[in-house]
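Standup notes
- DV: blocked on the single-chain target, sequence here:
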Amino acid sequence: MKTAHEIIIAGFGGQGVLSMGQIIAYAAMKEGKEVSWMPSYGPEMRGGTANCIVIVSEEKINSPIVSTFDSAIILNQPSLEKFADHVKPGGLILFEESSIINPPSRTDVEKLPVAALEEAQKLNKRQVANMILLGAFLERRPLVAPENVLKALKEVLPERHHHLLPLNEQALLRGKQIALELAHESVL
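- DV (later): unblocked, structure below
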């Protein structure tokens, strides 16, 4: 039985790609799991491409370098084009709906379009779109408990931004709710 879950999170710098991966990794460590977080970004950071590979496992991780993934969380079209074909059959491609012009056409994976930017604007804080995506992801792939995500967020978020923790929690829960609603719609 496979105990590791390999995730690619990709988008533009400044979208919270790397911090989303860090939050998953910290939350998994709080649960006593083995983790690997490997960031990759261009020299321009904000506005350039950024991605990170996160592995969460019940056992030791042999290598942090993988080329196929169980899940992809995608925040822009160039990242979708680069990584969609690297998701294993039966995997999950979760993507920010308004940022993707050509959605993935694969039929051998679960596809979850989430209007995270739109939902974040409803919360009056565009920067929490990544937490909405993370909430939706964890609803479909419950790798870590939401309470540990919130504890991890407190460690990842600079102290000067801790006043935003309640808003981030609200965004995380909204993402979980969206994933539930989308699952319900697909059954109907």
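- Follow-up: The chain has one domain: 4-187.
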